[in-house]
Amino acid sequence: MTMITDNPERAAFEALGAALARPQAILCISAHWETQGRTHLSAGDHPRTIHDFRGFPPELYAMRYPAPGSANLIDRVAALLGEDRIARDDSWGFDHGTWGTLLPMFPDATIPVVAMSLDRSLDADAHLALGAKLAPLRDEGVLIVGSGNVIHNLALWREAQGTIPAWAADFRSRTNAALIAGDTAALTRFSPDDRAAANAINSAEHYLPLLYVAGARLPGDDVALFNDTIDGALSMTSVLIGDAAPLAGIAGVQSFSI
Hints:
It contains ten helices and twelve strands.
């Protein structure tokens, strides 16, 4: 609904897209593409727009994101991760985890985009390690986007919407602190009795994209947090790792230099 709602979160994404140096290509790890055994990459000259949701207003289903694909970026990711680790997939495309994030930032849809799946056969540390392997892309003009939600539990959201439960505030505080400090262990390892983590991460697909961004962090990177809001059991907290200067004029931004 952020795509068709005039709200502060959408405004922040629009401002960020206008302020960022224009990337040569975008690699988007989407919560809405789960695979087993390999990491899939969207292949084809113009991957299709996928409306992978139900019960929303018609204007959302009319939206298209006709960005070109990039065989060159796919080849580069394959070189970094290993050909045996990836699969070129022209059956998928840009699901709303991809286009829903990129549309407000780059509405002209002219930057080449490759969507990347989550291989659910991997554990959290392995996803983090893949992010680290992708880090060289950052010096090659590629914007790495992890699209999901740090806190995402639809079952609990239905009973808690409009509030900020104590467990959600706790998990947000801990996760934000870990991102600022570069404490990746705090992002991947949770005790069995950690109720806040269990509630927030839930089925995990919305949390895992964050680990790619955290994994691709380089020494000396700034960290900026924005859209740091919670509605029940859903959060919109977003993080920019790298040069935080583009966010300087955006309301609600917290920037840190480590």
